[in-house]
Amino acid sequence: MRILIANDKFKGSLAAEKAGFHLKNSLEEVFPGAACDLCPIADGGEGTASAMTTALAGEWVKTETRDAHGRPLQAPFGWIPTSATAVMEMSSASGLAIVQDIELNPFKASTLGTGILLQSALRRGAKHILIGIGGSATNDGGLGVALALGYQFKRQGQDFSPTLETLLEADQIERPATLPSCELIVACDVDNPLLGPRGATRIYGPQKGVRDFAWFERRLEHLADLARRDLGVDPRDIPGAGAAGGLGFGLMAFLGGRLVSGFDMVAAQVGLEARVAAADLVITGEGRLDEQSLQGKGPVGVARLARRLGKKVVGVAGSVDDSAGLRAQFDLLIGIKPATMPLAEAMRRTGELLESAVAAHAAPLRALSS
User: Fold this and answer.
1) Cα 94 → chain centroid
2) How many CB atoms lie under 10 A from the CB of residue 360?
3) Which of 117, 242, 250, 311 lies in the 20 to 30 Å Cα band around 336?
4) Is 319 exposed, middle or buried, given 0-12, 13-18 or 19+ CB atoms closer than 10 A?
5) Nearest-5° angle of CA 170, CA 173, CA 174?
6) Could you tell me which residues come within 8 angstroms of residue 225 by beta carbon, excluding any fewer than 6 positions away?
7) Residue 185's closest CA among 248, 137, 236, 233?
């Protein structure tokens, strides 16, 4: 018997790969002699780089870069030598979580650190870069990325390095003399344009401290106008351009990025469809399964793929919402948190609870495989 274990992280408790090992331990008790295929997954958010680097047998590279407010830090990205592929998350350099210890200043927050990560991968010889862009602290339209990649801005014919505060003074932008060719795939699960009522500033800006919407809109529009006139690209209205404070726009405009569903990106890179097709039983899960999981979350993506290929699929989660829409996706749902156990304790004991919950459901699991 072959079991595919394709779970996401249990947020705040276990990374996807560690949760997968606990599931494997318990499933091997339920199904002696079974072959377990561990395939950690993600949906483009936090944990994407870790899940994909593990699944693709990659290694980790650390780069000296800067956070959204310019402070130095080391940020990792995954490297798969066999395909010259880099796997990264913008949040590891320009993420909101990194700057929670200081007062947010969206006027100065920059994606420069993410650009340094991208440049490091290019210098390493990357032919493919996969990047998740959730959790940003920035609203600069990818201006920092452009500067890190070597784009030149001019003011009245003279070179200068603009910030958001001085961007309106830029009257020209030029491509770098040499920019290595690379396929850039961007994990993005929102469809917001760069500008307007549903754009980066008005929808996502407030969580980063943005209050003066018009101030930011003028600068993002000016950046887009320069890219259209001088670079011949204008992705401002493409769905997802407004993701991560306009970084979706910047990655398309400055590095030719292609925006895709986060889950679809991960699934394609780890060969998920073929691995589901080869399995007799599919196990997936994450910290919580509820109605929101139906909106592009990884475990439901796995379940839908399993359904399409005629495979039995089991969802395991810290807590499970008993809804018809969710239950329709799975043959069996297993919640691991005992009703009387405090959440903090359950989060400390997630590995143990995963193993005991699977063991407690041995009979229905075996029934699925018969």
Assistant:
1) 13
2) 13
3) 311
4) middle
5) 150
6) none
7) 248
Nearest residue to 96 (alpha-carbon basis) of 253, 251, 208, 231: 208
What are the pLDDT tens digits along the chain (370 aa)? Answer: 999 999 999 988 998 999 999 999 999 999 999 999 999 988 777 778 887 888 788 999 999 999 999 999 999 999 999 999 999 999 999 999 999 999 989 999 999 999 999 999 999 999 999 999 988 999 999 999 999 999 999 999 999 999 999 999 999 999 999 899 999 999 987 889 999 999 999 999 999 999 999 999 999 999 999 999 999 999 999 999 999 999 999 999 999 999 998 888 889 888 999 999 999 999 999 999 988 788 778 899 999 999 999 999 999 999 998 888 899 999 999 999 999 999 999 999 999 999 999 999 999 999 998 7
* DSSP element (H, E) containing 318: strand 312-320
Q: Which CATH number fits domain 2-41+273-369: 3.40.50.10350, 1.10.530.10, 2.60.40.10, 3.20.20.100?
A: 3.40.50.10350
The residue among 78, 71, 125 whose CA lies nearest residue 100 is 71
Instruction: Name the CATH code of domain 48-262 (choices 3.20.20.240, 3.40.50.720, 3.90.1510.10, 3.30.470.10).
Output: 3.90.1510.10
- Using the CB atoms, write b or e for 214-244: b if 16+ within 10 Å: eebbebbbbbbebbeebeeebbbebebbbbb
Q: Fold match between 2-41+273-369 and 48-262?
A: no
Phi-psi region of 193 (alpha: psi -120 to 50; beta: other; left: phi over 0): beta
Show me where the domains of the chain are located: 2-41+273-369, 48-262
Please name the residue ranges forming H helices in the chain. Answer: 16-30, 48-55, 91-94, 112-123, 143-149, 200-204, 213-226, 243-255, 262-269, 272-277, 298-308, 324-327, 343-348, 350-360, 362-369
Task: Evaluate if pTM is beyond 0.70.
Answer: yes
User: 């590995």: which residue's tokens?
Assistant: 351
Burial class from Cβ neighbours inside 10 Å (0-12, 13-18, 19+) for residue 107 reads: middle
**Which two structure tokens, joined as six digits, stand for 141?**
């339209």
3-class DSSP state of 192: coil
